[in-house]
Amino acid sequence: MTESMSAVLECKALAKNFDEGPEKLEVLKDLNLMVGPSERVAVVGSSGSGKTTLLQLLAGLDRPSSGEIRVCGHDLATMKDTQQNELRNRHLGFVYQFHHLLPEFTALENVSMPLLLRKKTPIRQIKEKAERLLDAVGLLARAKHKPAELSGGERQRVAIARALVTEPDLVFMDEPTGNLDPNTAEKVHGLMASLSKASRTSFIVVTHDMNLARQMDRVYRLESGTLVLD
Q: What pLDDT was estimated at residue 36?
C-alpha cells in the first residue's frame, strides 16, 4: 500500500502520554501504521505495553497526544463526536476483551443491534444477516438465549458476530479468542479469512494467541511505544 487514498486506516507519528503527578508516562511514541483493504494485521506485545490504548486511539474512542489518524479517508481529529459515531457504525466493527453484550436482549438481538441503529434496513434482512453470523460462529441454536444464559466463550462468539454483521471495512479485535476453545478459535480464524477475501474486510487484532497472529498477513510487536515488524 503506497497511496493514502487506498488505505482503510493510516496513522502517522502517533503518540499518547499520561500525566502521573509530576511525571509524564509515554505509552506510545512516533507510531506509524497503514492497513489496506482485506489486510489482516496482528499486534502482539507484553501486558501493559499499550496495545489496548492503541486500538482505542485508532477507533476514535480516545484522543492521541499528537499525530494523525485517518480511517476510511476521514481525519478523526477534524470530526465531531456525532460524525465519529456514524463512521464507526458504517465502517467499523469491534470485539473487546470483555463482550459488552446488552444483558436484557437475546443473542440474536445483540447481533442485530448495529443494523437496527441504522433504522432504514428492513427487519427481515437484519434477522437473516444476524442468524447467518450466529450460525457461522456455531450459535444459531442459542439465538434466543440472553447473555446470562450463555457461557463466557459463547458470549464472546456473539460479540464477534455482532462486530461482523454490518460487513465493516475494518474490524478491531482485542484478544478475540482469549475465552474460546481451540476448535472454536479455529472457526473464528476461518471466518475472518473468508470475510477478508469476500468482503475485503480488514482486521487489526491485538492478541497473545500466536497461532492466531501467525495466520495474519503481518505481525507487529509493540515495543517501547512503537510498532516493530515481527
A: 92
